[in-house]
Design brief:
- There is one protein chain.
- The chain is α+β, with helices and mostly antiparallel strands.
- Helices cover 40% and strands 31% of the residues.
- It contains four helices and seven strands.
- 18% of the residues are buried.
Length: 142
Amino acid sequence: MDDITGSRQWRVPSSLPAAKLAGAVLLIALGLLFADGDPVRVVVAGVAAAALAAWAVRDLIAPVRLAVDPTGLRVIHGFAGHRLLPWTAVEAITVDRRPRLGLTSEVLEIDAGDSLHLFGRFDLGATPEEVAGALRAARPVS
C-alpha cells in the first residue's frame, strides 16, 4: 500500500487468520473425535486450538507487521503493539537465506542496535527480498 506521503506497509495476508481459525476448529473436532473417553486428549486439543486461535486474533487485531515512511520504520512490538524505529536507529536491513530440508527459507532482518526484528513471507505478504529492496530505497541518504 502506497500513499502520497511516501509511506508503505506490509501486512499478514487476509487468508492466513481464516486458515488459523479453521485449524483451531479442526483441532477441537479431532480432539473430540479421537478422545475415546480420555479427557486429556480433549484438553490437549483445546489448548492447542486456543493457542492457534490467539495467533489468528493477533493477525486480525494487528495485521500490519511493518510500515515505512520518511521518519523511519514502524514494526510490530509485543502481541499487537507497534514501535517506531527512526532511520538513525536502523543499522542494517538484510535478508537471511537458509536451506532446510530441500527448501530455502528467507527472513527479513532489521537490526536496530538494541533490537533485532525478523519478518517472514507470511508476516509481510511479500518476499523478504522485495521488502528489503523497498526499505533500502525508502531510507534517506545521509
